Amino acid sequence: MAHQRIVLITGATSGIGEATARLLAANNFKLILCGRRKERLQTLAEELKTQTEVTTLSFEVRNQKEVAASIESLPPAWKQIDVLINNAGNAHGLDPIQTGSVDDWDAMMDINVKGLLYVTKAVMPVMVQRNAGHIINIGSIAGKEVYGNGNVYCASKFAVDALTKGMRIDLNAHSIKVTAIHPGLVETEFSLVRFKGDEERSKNVYKGFEPLQANDIADLILFALTRPPHVVIADLVVLPTAQASATVVRRN
Ligand code: NDP
Ligand code: 8X3
Question: Structural domain of residue 101, as residue ranges?
């Protein structure tokens, strides 16, 4: 029987991460599910344990010590991580740069950029040592195009794009695959977080067209993970059909 790969997914408590966990569980991957909301992690883990081996880690990606200690706390067999999916992240606010909140800026840079780096730093050594592994970073159309009021969120996702390219170059000597997937509008808790719990404003983001669903991104992650050893999906932008760019969306 083929080696069952161990996949660590950050942000597995909702949206893209949760959908990916479900799809990978059904496709014979072992899972390390991460997120801050422990109850959600536990519920999902219990459900998926009927299909595969699952463990959970609850940490705040902004806290480097917590990230390192959490990954270090894994039992030896679980430390042999084959795949890292750097998915945890959010937008906080949608304001012009001149009125943006410093707390929002800190959150986006700390979570989307530094958090991704902290998790990668903790997981990479085992991949480097084994000269094998796959890192998938979830970027965004916002990491390819800047839109009005997107300023710092866009900057954080441009950084994810740059880091993905840098990782691919530096890890090339170790045969580690590095993939970026850059979605357009996906209907998850993303907008609820961006608009600080304002449900009405959040719903409006996805009104009048058919947005992507978290499953659509999970499908692409599975596709990237199941290419043969000599093939890496390097950079993939995926949009709803109604979306032509970061700002052009055909609504009814
Ligand atoms: P969700 O808000 O549904 O999920 C975000 C996930 O990130 C949650 O599981 C959350 O878990 C986790 N997370 C957030 N902050 C932290 C933190 N400080 N520490 C640890 N975990 C954290 O959004 P999506 O599923 O849509 O977002 C997933 C990724 O996709 C993000 O990187 C986002 O930028 C990107 N993306 C989203 C798009 C969209 O339109 N939805 C489009 C393009 C990219 P918890 O709160 O339990 O910690
Ligand atoms: C999420 C998509 O367009 O809201 O990254 O930035 S967008």
Answer: 6-238
